[in-house]
Amino acid sequence: MGILSDRVTEEYGRLKQRAPKILVVDDKIDTLLLLRELLSSRGYVVITATDADEARELVHSDKPDLMLLDVIMPGKSGYELCRELKDDPFTRLVPIVMITGLTDRDDRVRGIEAGADDFLSKPLYPEELFARVKSLLKLKEFTDELENAEAVLVALALGIESRDPYTGNHCERLARYASDLGQHIGLDGDSIVALKRGGYLHDLGKVSIPDEILKKGSRLTAEEWEIMKQHPIIGESICQPLKSFRNVLPIIRHHHEHWDGSGYPDQLVGAQIPLLARVLQTADVYDALRTARPYKPALGHDEAERTMMEEAGRGSWDPELVTAFFAMLKKKEQAA
Prior knowledge:
Elements: H1 2-17, E1 21-25, H2 29-40, E2 45-49, H3 52-62, E3 66-70, H4 78-87, E4 96-100, H5 105-114, E5 118-121, H6 126-162, H7 170-184, H8 189-201, H9 211-214, H10 222-228, H11 231-239, H12 249-254, H13 275-289, H14 301-313, H15 319-335
Parallel strand pairs: 1-2, 1-3, 3-4, 4-5
Helix pairs in contact: 1-6, 4-5, 7-8, 7-13, 8-13, 14-15
């Protein structure tokens, strides 16, 4: 567990030491050459593109820390490319400076609506260019630190999972099941991301549970069970400082609540349980039934479905989500 976290931290340290990479997008070669010369003189790594399609490929392949994007280009405009990149979860955090010779207020409003982080007007002045680039790269560094914190937490969660030889790739399966169910019921993109994160981090609080309890299975004493029931609260407290995890915290805290109020830690009833927690819980129950443990065999798919439907009927789980989950699995099977 410690080795995994150390590897992530070391990798992040290595990345912090490299020179920031800037992608310049302009269809005018003289502008590209000027910006490359200016930025290279300050130690930045500069890559260039002359149109939106080439720029999109470079954003995904080279992962720049900042983009300087001309507004007017042949084909797709800078506004369109900016909006596309800001709508993509994989590129939305890359700062984009739009470069324009247009001074009309409406043009800047269009850039703001597209998600631009800043603007530069032509003709370009080196001092202004360097100041804006430096400011946005500092912001990107803070963003990278948050992403690194997430990577360390995921590594820690996977380390916890490795303490239990019977769960296999439970976190990976759970993240996939939960996000698929979220998409099936029409949740938004941020909720899907939260479900994926929750799949990996839901049991993070087990880092504080001793092995003799964690690996004991279902034969816990009353005192041991009270210790085990603290892990959702502990996991929530570990992730609490990360504001970007606000949608994940209810998943971590409430994924062991039951529809009839018999769960823990807060004995929430029915719709009091946050929807994302109920979605992940549905996937978690299915994966648990399908996994062999020292105290039970693995169930087949049909038997797991019967069991979950019966338990939902008795009040254990959200019956609508259980029905939706198996409808989603059937749809995927038919599509395959």
